[in-house]
Design a protein that fits this description.
The protein is of the alpha/beta class. The chain is built from eight helices and nine strands. The two termini are 17 Å apart.
Length: 251
């Protein structure tokens, strides 16, 4: 069984990004922005309510405090402050989730924080400390990252993730968005990557090398061109290939 997750609730005020309603009909887990890189209370509560209606798990997508930069700029945050800000974001989303009849079931860092916690030991530990202060929630991250190392070290569940629409380096990390080819935009490329992950447990790096990888969840970005069509095609192809889809969290 494999989980499909997507970043949702990434609008702010009158601004909207992505089609939350359509993606909630496809994914099994929703990474909901908690207000630091995107999202606001009304958006958070609305997405939580729609997720609850569909039986989709709600996860807190925590970020640096960087609304202007959409959380895609590294911040040399003090580890204690970063842990507290992670805790704050989870708590804010939990309030909205409870009001909507559900709960926060896991945590996933967003953008630059996600990438930083692959190798930045202090920030990875800070994120985990923030999660642990809230409770025993699973943490979604890149296989082999310092984030998942510290997650397992403190006794939390480490959930391994791959991306349907992102290119990979030979080291198994994401190709920076600033580089050409970092985002897969064709449906064929996205489908090939997902099916190879599901069937063989491997990825093809941007260099052409094959990387072995075990994952529990596949991320379908909601802000890439053709995101909804890609997501629907991925779900259909996985089902046709006999892959069972389901949440990695159990209530």
């Amino acid at each position: 069984m494999i989980d499909l997750n997507s970043d949702l609730g990434e609008g702010f005020g009158i601004w909207r990004l992505g089609d939350d309603e359509a993606l909630l009909d496809v994914v099994t887990s929703a990474n909901v922005a908690c207000g630091f890189h995107a999202g606001d209370p009304s958006t958070m509560r609305r997405v939580c309510a729609r997720a609850a209606e569909r039986g989709v798990a709600v996860g807190a997508q925590v970020s640096y405090r960087d609304l202007a930069g959409f959380g895609r700029r590294f911040i040399d945050a003090d580890p204690t402050e970063l842990a507290d800000e992670v805790l704050y974001q989870i708590g804010a989303l939990e309030a909205c989730a409870r009001a909507a009849g559900t709960r926060v079931s896991y945590v996933k860092p967003h953008g630059a924080l996600y990438n930083a916690t692959v190798h930045h030991d202090a920030q990875a530990e800070a994120v985990v400390n923030g999660v642990k202060a809230f409770g025993d929630l699973p943490v979604l991250g890149l296989p082999g990252s310092r984030l998942l190392h510290h997650t397992a070290r403190v006794g939390l569940r480490a959930v391994r993730e791959a991306f349907a629409d992102r290119a990979y380096t030979p080291e198994g990390t994401l190709v920076p968005r600033s580089r050409p080819g970092a985002v897969l935009t064709s449906s064929d490329a996205v489908l090939n990557q997902v099916l190879r992950l599901a069937r063989r447990g491997e990825l093809v790096a941007i260099s052409g090398e094959t990387i072995a990888v075990e994952v529990d969840s596949i991320c379908l970005h909601g802000d890439t061109p053709g995101a909804v069509e890609h997501a629907r095609s991925v779900r259909k192809a996985l089902t046709a290939a006999g892959v069972r889809l389901g949440r990695f969290v159990v209530d």
